[in-house]
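Subject: Sanity check before I submit

Could someone independently write out the structure tokens for this chain? I want to compare against mine line by line before I put it in a report. The sequence has 383 residues.
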Amino acid sequence: MGAFLDKPKTDKFTEGGSGNGLRYGLSSMQGWRIEMEDAHLACIGLPTAGLKDWSAFAVFDGHAGGKVSTYCAKHLLDAIVKNEDFNGNEGSSNNTERHGITLDSVRTGLRTGFLRLDEELRNLPETTSGEDRSGTTVICTLISPQNIIFANCGDSRSVLCRAGRVAAATVDHKPINPAEKDRIQKAGGSVMIQRVNGSLAVSRALGDFEYKNVAGKDACEQLVSPEPEVTIEERCETDEFLVLACDGIWDVMSNEELCDFIRSRMLLTDDLKQISNWVVDTCLAKGSRDNMSIIIVAFKGAAQVSESAKAKEAELNERLQAKVKEILATQPPEAATMQYIMHLLAIEDIEGLPPGGGIYAKRDTVEEIVRSLSPSSLTEQQD
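---
Independent answer below. Compare away.
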């Protein structure tokens, strides 16, 4: 239907940084989609809001175009931290994070920021003219010295890994969720083939104004709501890392699989950009057909590089080399495509494959082995 390319675009945008006791790395890839509609923000320290010890991260998964996701990546943070609800009134609560800001005001301010930005989007010239009908999901986290605040709108997702397990995760907003379906039906819509009016696969998003015109209903009662679901998790010493990713990642990896994979890669390198790239490559190899974006934020409790883990990875690579050599020796030359070789390796019981990624996490390694053993036989066909 023209939604996909003949061959995936595998160039990546990467970024990394550190500060406030955090390290982060991100990677994004267009993949099979005809357009890159994802966007992101990563900000260590929020000095313009007087919050130098806070940080903010977000992933925006656009659909029907990338204009709304790009706009939100530029303006969402200001919409949140500069509104009066976020900043609150001094002494308004006992749970004060810093002068004038409380967890209650943060909750309210996040909601206000999302709703005001959505109204701002509605009034853009390209929106009012009907030229642009795009929308975007948003997964946003604010990290203060004491708390991690999640704001989720749509089906991008954030997961917190603590003490070797998934400790917290946002819930995707899908039309089939009972509360979401109830709101859609009360607004006169329907849920067909798990989509709003049989068309849109998410029930909350910024933009998408063709689903937000029901008379007599406020912004949060429309077919598609711009209201974020805000949850707060108190930080602790055993926090390892936080993941924010669009559904192109979650389509092929569960919360536990992704966290296990990232943790295993942290034993090999402390380069979070590289680990983010490995996640994206692995998801592409596992069959993701969407744009892919991921941000990994590491806390002080994250796993450290292990020489023992490096040695085990080297042993795995040796096992893979032996397996590939055996395949090339026993199969006819015309069968030596990466697709076929990966298929044969996938049905093997190979010790030491990365948890959550399996043989798909080693696709680049396998290709390097094939190229080194038999360059002329590598007649790869598109998977």
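---
OP: Matches mine. For the report I'm noting this point. Residues 247 and 377 are 36 Å apart (CA to CA).
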